[in-house]
Amino acid sequence: MSAEKRPGKALVIGAGLAGLSAAHRLSRQGWEVTVLEKEQQVGGRCRSLRDGGFTFDTGAQHIRDSYDSALKTAIEVGLGAELRIPEEEKGVFRGGGVHAFHSRSTNPAKLVPWGALGLRGGLGFAAASAPLARRYRSYNVRFPEWWRGGDGSTAAEFISRRGAGGRYAGFASAVSRYGLGAEPEEVSAAAYLAAVRFTLADRTGSFTGGMGSLARAIAARLDVRLSTAVEEVVVENGRATGVRARPSDGGRSRLHRAGLVVCAAPAAAAMEVAPGMCDVARGIAAGTLYAPGIVVNLGFDGAAGGAPGPVLIEPREGFRSSWMCSSGSKTAEYAPAGGSVVTVVFCGASARGMLASDEASALAGAVDEAARLYRVGGSAPSASRVHFHALAKPVAAPGHARRVRELRSAGSGIPGLVLAGDWTSSPTVEGAVRSGLLAADLAGNAPGG
Ligand SMILES: Cc1cc2nc3c(=O)[nH]c(=O)nc-3n(C[C@H](O)[C@H](O)[C@H](O)COP(=O)(O)OP(=O)(O)OC[C@H]3O[C@@H](n4cnc5c(N)ncnc54)[C@H](O)[C@@H]3O)c2cc1C
Question: What global pTM score does this model have?
Fold first, then answer.
């Protein structure tokens, strides 16, 4: 860090995982950091709530064992002992039943659920993956490499070019919805291949207390002002010198001054608070589309039975949901002794179609679908919650990796203002955390920082 960029006061907009991770690293670098969050709680799209003794994750459902930045950050903030990554099987629902497969992180051939795909599906998978296998000798590659290859076309084009339609296409849809929350027609081939990797290879888990524990633990060490909505980044003499923020429930706006501002709000909010960003940053923010997602959590007094890991559902099976999981894939602590939590997730086209529906019908649909997958004794859930996310995950459409690289080199265009958030990285918990850590590291020398 250059002499004139010595740590001073820093403001972070947004207490999602990106903003909190940025604040965490900045404060370790010696900055005096304040985080401003418009909601009454931290965590953004990665929160948990307690209801009748059950823990429900309202947005993000799983961390994965490849999430280096998120896992390291969790350990740094004292969550090491709370991490739970069970050795559970994942499954694909096909032909009226769940075909289980094990997550492994080594030999790619062993990762593929051959039995679930059947002969034709297996041949389709091999055809679609051959170029990848040639390109990456080692399966255990990092995200950036995957995002670069195949960034120019959609997953659907990639699959049909390889002549691997038919049965494999159903599996591809399930993976795309599970990993990226969107259809193969919407996401790039590279993003889809990354999703194949973490669907098949990574083990999934959570924390005692739910996914929201991560945000809560990071925030516990920081100065976070809740219910404080930032209205604008203040720019004086071409440099960000603070923000103007107002209590979310009304009241007077106030000027907060700082030598550094990190904006870790979703793309549309970033454009609103910092309209003076450079053309590249504004163009990328304006072009960021989000896929919807609906999460229905069901708490049962009895055991769920059935596959404990996440179960991907092929669209043709007559479900509206894209995947389900039970507390078995997270931690036993999600339910009181003897009970279970089943989470039903709607993504992609079916979530888009359901956004206008009410909570009661989403709940009724989820209960029916859960009963097809889990033995919950025909009982009604003793607790339940429905969460509609119109903007669940930024769509990793073709060109996403290129746009991320362009944004990284252009910066915000406003000295003193650095951007973060999953839309500047990848649409996951790991992407959000990594973007925050990177923003903090860039703060000393980025063009916009
Ligand atoms: C249904 C669903 C399921 C998912 N499943 C998974 C999963 O299993 N695994 C996975 O890795 N990822 C998953 N994700 C994605 C993951 O949750 C997100 O990528 C990640 O949480 C985004 O973090 P973020 O900090 O970038 O944004 P956010 O979490 O959206 O945080 C932004 C914060 O900024 C605040 N804010 C906005 N505007 C202002 C303003 N003007 N002033 C002050 N504050 C402001 C917001 O209130 C919010 O708290 C899922 C997401 C959803 C919705």
Answer: 0.92
